[in-house]
Amino acid sequence: xxxxxETAHGGRRLVIVxxxxxxxxxxxxxxxxxxxxxxxxxxxxLPNGAAExxxxxxxxxxxxxxxxxxxxxPIYVVNADKRAQVRKLKxxxxxxxxxxxxxxxxxxxxxxxxxxxxxxxxxVPVHRMVFHEITKDxxxxxxxxxxxxxxxxxxxxxxxxxxxxxxxxEVSPVLWKKVMRGLSAGRVQSVATRLVVxxxxxxxxxxxxxxxxxxxxxxxxxxxxxxxxxxxxxxxNSVDGRRVAQGRDFGPDGRLKSDQVLHLxxxxxxxxxxxxxxxxxxxxxxxxxxxxxxxxxxxxxxxxQQEASRKLGFGAKSTMxxxxxxxxxxxxxxxxTDSTTLSDTAVSAARAxxxxxxxxxxxxxxPRTYAGKVKNAQEAHEAIRPSGDRFRTPxxxxxxxxxxxxxxxxxxxxxxxxxxxxxxxxxxVKIGGRxxxxxxxxxxxxxxxxxxxxxxxxxxxxxxxxxxxxxxxxRRLPQxxxxxxxxxxxxxxxxxxxxxxxxxxEASLVKELEEREIGRPSTYASIIGTILDRGYVFKKGxxxxxxxxxxxxxxxxxxxxxxxxxxDFTAKMEDDLDRIAQGEAQAxxxxxRFYFGEGDDHSAGVASGxxxxxxxxxxxxxxxxxxxxxxxxxxxxSFPVGDGIMLRVGRYGPYVERGDKDEEGHQRxxxxxxxxxxxxxxxxxxxxxxxxSGDFELGADPExxxxxxxxxGRYGPYVxxxLPDGTPKTxxxxxxxxxxxxxxxxxxxxxxLADALKLMSLPRVVGTDAEGVEITAQNGRYGPYLKKGTxxxxxxxxxxxxxxxxxxxxxxxxxxxQRGRAAAKPPLKELGTDPVSERxxxxxxxxxxxYVTDGETNATLRTDDSVETITPxxxxxxxxxxxxxxxxxxxAKKAAKKAPAKKAPAKKATxAKKAAxxxxxxxxxxxxxxxxxxxxxxxxxxxxxxx
Length: 947
Known about the structure:
Helix 7 (about 150-180) runs parallel beside helix 19 and helix 7 (about 150-180) packs antiparallel against helix 28 (about 910-940). The chain is globular. By secondary structure, it is of the alpha+beta class. A hairpin with a 4-residue loop joins strand 32 (about 850-855) and strand 33 (about 860). Helices cover about 35% and strands about 20% of the residues. The strands form nine sheets. It has a six-stranded antiparallel beta barrel. Strands 2-1-7-8 form a four-stranded parallel beta sheet, sandwiched between helices. A four-stranded antiparallel beta sheet has the order 18-19-20-21.
C-alpha cells in the first residue's frame, strides 16, 4: 500500500530521521499525512561530566557516568543542546497516530532509534523504518515494510559505548598527570597513534644503503613503430650468475640480508660498464605469459576513503562528509558499510549501463558477485553505489565540486565492477653479454601489453605509492626471439639509496587498521580526525607525522598499559564485542573482566595476554590505573638523541637538553613544533643548542642602572630588566622586573635599548574620561588595545600605543563596542539557518582561525574543515557539538574578567602590571579547567567518533 493511500483513511504519522537534510528529502517523497522531523543525531548519551549526573548518583558513578558496581548500568542524560528538539518531537508525537523511527540502518542508528523511543515514551504504535538509499521507491517501500527494533544491535552499541567510556575516563587522567593536561586516550585512537609512532621509530632507526647497477638501451637494428619498438631498456640482473643487489636486499640497518647477492659499489659498477662497452649481446630467453586482471569490488567505507585520498586528495573525514551529503540527497546508497554486495536491482542497472556506454563486448555473460572480505562485518548492507534502479551518469546529476568528483568515483567503480576482465600478455626478455675481462653479464626487461582493456575502460584503482605502476600501464617490448643479436646503444651507471619506510597517509592508515582488524570501518574517519585534533599527529603533504607529544603518550601507554595498545589484544576485543553483538557472549561478564580483571578462560583482562585460556587472574583496567607511583613522568617524556643530548616533552612543548639544569654547562633549546621526529638528528640538535639563548644585552637603563636584555620566550620575543642581587622575588615586598613583548615589526637582533625602554614604559596613561576613569594604552598577546575599567577596545596598529590622544581615545569609546575584531569583518561564507537555534549561520575569521557562528554559539573549524568546502550540515554539526558541552561555568576566567573592576584605576604602570598579573593567573586557571573538561569529554563523544 502506498503512503498516499494509507493516509487517505486519516491519521498522522511522525517520521524521525537523524539529519535535517535527510528530513527535507524524505518529506518530499512521503507527501501529506506524514510529518518528517530530525533528531539531529543523538538526543541522549552518557553524561559529559559530574554536573550532568542526577543527584541520586554518588561516588564513581558521577565521575564515570556508568555504575560499575551494578552490572555497568549506564546513566543516560538528554544532551543540553537537544532539549529544545526533544520538546518539539514530543509535541509532534502528541499530535500523531503512529511513530516511524527512520534513523540510519547501522548499529549506531539502531541505538539512536532506541533512545528516541525511551525518551519520547510513545503511546502510539511504533515502527522501525529502514532503507539504504533515499529514493522515492526505497522510502515508500520502507514505510510499507517496517520492522521491530533490533535490541541485539542496541546492546552491542551500548557495550562499545560503555567500554570506550571506561577506557577514556580511566586512562586519560593518567596522561593529564604524567604528560600534559587536555590529552585523551581511546581504545582505537591510542592504537592508531602507536602505529604512526612506530613507523616514525622505524624511520629514525633506519640506515640508508647505497647500491649501484647498470641500465642498458639495446637496439634490434630494425625500424620500429608503436606496436613493435626498435629498442628496449633493460637493467643488469646478474654477473656470473650472481644476482645484483637491489633495494629489497638490504635491511633497515643498511646491511645486506644475504651474502648470496652481489653488492656493486660505484667503482665496480663503472668498471663493469667500461668492460662491456664493446661486448656482443644477444637474447637469451623470451618468456611470455597471459595477463588477466579482474575488476575491483564495489566500494565499501574503507576502500572509498582510500581511493578518495589517492585520486581526489580528500581526507577520510572530508570523504565521509561529502558522501553523507550525496546519500541524504538521494545520489548514493548508505556510505557506512562493510559490504561489497550489490542488490539484483543494482547489478541490473550497472549491466545495462555497461552495454549502453561501452557495448555488449564489455559485458560478462553472468553478473559478477563479490565475497565479503571484512571479518565480522557489522551488518549485511549493500556496497556504496549510485542509488536507484537506473544509475544517473555524473553529467546527469547536476552535481558540482567535491560532490561531483566523489559521485563520479563511486559511479565508475560500480559500473566497472560488472565489466569483463582486462586481458593481455606479460613478457620477460633476458639479454646476455660477456665483458672484456671475461665476466658474464645478464640484463632483464619486462613488458606488458593489454589486448582487451575490459573494466579498465571505466576505472583503474590508484596506489598508495606515488611511484607504483598502475594496472593499465603498458610497456611494449620489441618482438624478439631467443638468439637474436642486439647492440648496446648506451650503458648507464645508476646509483641508488634505500629509503626508510614511507609514513602513513590517511588512506594507508585506514588500510592498516582494517587489515589488523582493529576498530570498525565506520569509525576510521573520526579516529584519524581525533588524533589530528589532539595534536598527536600532524600532516606534511598527505603524510601523517607523529608529534613529539605522541611519542611521550605512546611511551607511557606501552610501558605501563601495554595490553591496551597491543594490536592483537585490541583486535581480540573487537572479536569479543562482535560475539556479544551476535549473542554468543554476555556483555556484563565481559565488561566485569575487562574492568575488574576477574580470571576466566575467555578473560578480557588487560594486564596479561588476551584470552590465554589459563584461567589465572588477569589484572583489569581499574587495577592498572590505581597505582601510578611507578610512572616517572620525566622518564616517559625523555628520549635520547645522542652525544649526551636528550629530547624532552615538556608542559609547553618539546625541547632538547644537555646536562642537568643545576650543573655548569647546562644547555637547553626549544624544538620547533612542526619538526618531524626523524629530522631531529644529533647535528640538528647541536645547531639548536648552539643558537643564542635569546639573551641579548641591550645596555643599562639610565634611570635605574638595571641591565636590559632581550629574550626569546615561550610566547615570542620580549625585553626585560635584570634586577640586582638580593631583590626580593617572593613575599609581600616582592619586586617583579619590568617586561614587555616586542612589536611584530621588531626582532631580537635589531631591537635597541631605546626601543626596550619605550616598550617597558607601557601601559601608557592616555588620560581620564568625564567621570574620572583612567584610559590606558596597552600591548597584549593579541595586539594593541585601550583599556578603561573593564572595557577594552582594539587599536589598529602598535604605533598608536604611543601617539593616540585622549580625544581620539574618547572617540573610539563613543562608538558601539564590537564583539571581537572579527565582528566588523564581513562573513567568509553564509551557510543558511540552523535547525536548532533557527538563526542564520555564517563562517567568520577569528583570532584562532575561521569559525562558524549563529550569533549565540561559536565553533572553530576542525583540521579537515575548510572555508571553501564546509557544508551547511557540517556547520550545524559543529555548533551542535559545541552546544553539547553546555554553557560555560563561572570559572576563574570570569573571575579574571571581573578582577580589574574591584581595583581603583591604575595610577602608575606597576599597579596596572599587578592587575595584569592577577588576570594572567586567573586565565591560566581557566585554561586548566577548560583543558580538564575537554579531556574528560573526549571519551564521551558518540561511538561514531569515539574509540
